[in-house]
């Protein structure tokens, strides 16, 4: 009997995750999902939770260092890790954290440096506009800061002139995370690669 249920369970999970990866939002989520601040993509929304544990605590600083890395899978869409930056912001707002108490820093490294190419460089490489630029601009407008690993940039033969000026180059992702940790930021990996 176990041999029957395990493959069935696996098939259900794979189908569900395939739908999520393709951006198809189930109707039961569409009916309930909310967008406290950012709404530029369906997957940056949050599901309401009544009386959730660990609500906003005014004695805490909500400082988060987000780890963004991965490969470019679809040059015509906002990269999923950048969507997770917006979702992280929305989740904190939904949890009652005032915007002025949220400090988010996104640290980009690895192949994800391709997502932050300037419009001109992105057009040259992918023959399309860079969909990540508008998302980064919206997030920056809410106070989110973006840094990129200088080591990854060198590996991909890129300089600061090749990327959007909204992203600042640090010597490395590692040193950036160490510095942010010392400044009281909580580390959160939002990448799926």
UniProtKB/TrEMBL annotation:
Highest taxon of source: Bacteria
InterPro entries hit by this protein: DsrEFH-like, Sulphur_relay_DsrE/F-like
Signal peptide: 1-21
Record keywords: Signal
SUPFAM superfamilies in the cross-refs: DsrEFH-like
Family annotation (Pfam families): DsrE
Protein name (Swiss-Prot/TrEMBL): Intracellular sulfur oxidation protein, DsrE/DsrF family
């Amino acid at each position: 009997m176990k041999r029957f249920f395990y493959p069935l369970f696996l098939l259900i999970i794979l189908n569900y995750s395939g739908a999520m990866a393709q951006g198809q939002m189930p109707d039961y989520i569409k009916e309930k999902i909310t967008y406290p601040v950012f709404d530029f993509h369906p997957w940056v929304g949050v599901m309401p939770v009544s009386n959730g544990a660990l609500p906003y605590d005014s004695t805490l600083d909500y400082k988060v260092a987000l780890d963004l890395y991965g490969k470019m899978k679809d040059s015509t869409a906002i990269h999923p890790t950048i969507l997770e930056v917006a979702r992280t912001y929305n989740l904190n707002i939904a949890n009652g954290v005032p915007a002025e108490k949220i400090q988010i820093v996104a640290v980009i490294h690895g192949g994800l440096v391709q997502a932050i190419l300037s419009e001109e460089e992105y057009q040259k490489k992918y023959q399309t506009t860079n969909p990540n630029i508008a998302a980064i601009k919206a997030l920056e407008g809410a106070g989110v800061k973006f840094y990129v690993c200088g080591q990854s940039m060198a590996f991909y033969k890129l300089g600061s002139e090749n990327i959007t000026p909204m992203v600042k180059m640090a010597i490395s992702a590692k040193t950036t995370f160490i510095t942010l940790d010392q400044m009281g930021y909580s580390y959160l990996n939002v990448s799926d690669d």
